[in-house]
Design a protein that fits this description.
Elements: H1 4-16, H2 19-26, H3 30-44, E1 49-52, E2 55-58, H4 60-88, E3 93-98, H5 100-104, H6 106-117, E4 122-127, H7 130-138, E5 144-152, E6 155-156, E7 171-186, E8 197-198, E9 206-209, H8 212-224, E10 230-234, H9 238-246, E11 252-255, H10 256-261, E12 268-271, E13 273-274, E14 277-286, H11 293-326
Parallel strand pairs: 3-4, 3-5, 8-13, 9-10
Antiparallel strand pairs: 1-2, 5-6, 5-14, 7-11, 7-12, 7-14
Pfam families: HTH_1, LysR_substrate
Protein name: HTH-type transcriptional regulator GltC
Organism: Demequina sediminis
């Protein structure tokens, strides 16, 4: 059998182009790396790396092996994380990756709840959009990925601009919350008190677009209705987006979680749109990890936090809409 350490060294040589740098990358001395490389080549019966004036390069056999090695090392890393979880995450660290608005709202509430119930369980958090979050999960770089998908009138949105995703064998997705998508419009706008605003009526408006994924979704859904929105401003900052709307500079689509992360000022009116647009927030993990009590309890805490935020936000939005309509 080929030693995983030898595979890691080969990949590092391919990445670094130098045996010394590769040894440093895998945490061994240069003589030890040389010995590992010789051992690997004896086992295979052929050279996998050659010294050149510029450093080291892989042979054709080395390139073939490096391609397999990357997949093997990824699988081994994922296996280690799942086994460590099964052995007892209650005393370890649970690694989460999430898109920004959930990281700013759902996750802090869930972490507080879990810390109170399980003070020995630690957490780490990294931010990434759906496609990268799932890739990180499959590389074994996280234990839970918090992602989302758009729905239009209750049906999953398959607009070509949106990044599609599917579960792989051995993965499960649990819904945390289905949040409403609102139209943020200047309170002084002539349509601010309108009960529901069809998107085609906004074809001549200036739009304020959010993150690249949200922007792609906006372009996809408006194209369904036969128009391309004029994007006057683009920002990943929810506060800036709502301030631009409040200043009368355009309209935007915002979700419950965005509104919880950045409270709109009194100059912004929130109206329902037609078609009804929602964003479904989900947590994805492997089936093996979902057998671990700590992971299951974290999922429950995430779902409880999401439901609490969405309910509170919808109550506030309902009250705000009523005040605007009354005027």
């Amino acid at each position: 059998m080929i030693d995983l350490r030898h595979l890691a060294l080969l990949v590092a040589i391919d990445d670094e182009g130098s045996l010394t740098a590769a040894a440093r990358a895998v945490g061994v001395s240069q003589p030890a790396a040389s010995q590992q490389l010789r051992t690997l080549e004896r086992r295979l019966g052929t050279a996998v790396a050659l010294r050149t004036p510029g450093g080291f390069r892989l042979t054709e056999a080395g390139r073939v092996l490096a391609g397999h090695a990357r997949q093997i090392l990824d699988s081994a890393s994922r296996a280690e994380s799942e086994i460590a979880a099964i052995a007892g995450l209650h005393g370890g660290t649970l690694r989460l990756v999430s898109f920004p608005s959930a990281a700013a709202t759902i996750l802090p509430r869930a972490f507080v709840s879990m810390r109170e119930a399980h003070p020995d369980l630690g957490f780490t958090l990294r931010e990434a959009e759906t496609a990268e979050a799932l890739a990180m999960l499959r590389r074994g770089e996280c234990d839970l990925a918090v992602i989302y998908e758009w729905r239009v009138d209750g049906t999953a949105d398959d607009a070509p601009e949106d990044v599609p995703w599917t579960l792989e064998p051995g993965e499960l997705a649990l819904t945390l919350v289905e949040e409403e998508v609102h139209l943020a419009i200047p309170r002084s706008h002539v349509r601010a008190a309108q009960a529901r605003i069809p998107l085609p009526e906004l074809r001549d408006e200036t739009w304020i677009a959010g993150c690249p994924v949200c922007r792609a979704h906006l372009l996809g859904i408006t194209r369904r209705w036969g128009f391309a929105p004029h994007l006057g401003f683009e920002t990943d900052d929810y506060v800036a987006l709502l301030r631009l709307v409040g200043a009368g500079l355009g309209v935007a689509l915002v979700t419950d979680l965005m509104l919880d992360a950045a409270r709109p000022e009194d100059t912004v009116a929130l109206r329902p749109v037609s078609p009804v647009v929602t964003r479904v927030v989900k947590a994805v993990a492997s089936e093996a990890l979902l057998k671990v009590p700590g992971v299951r309890e974290t999922l429950a805490a995430l779902a409880e936090a999401g439901a609490t935020i969405a309910a509170a936000q919808r109550a506030q939005v309902t009250a705000q809409r009523a005040r605007v309509a009354a005027r």
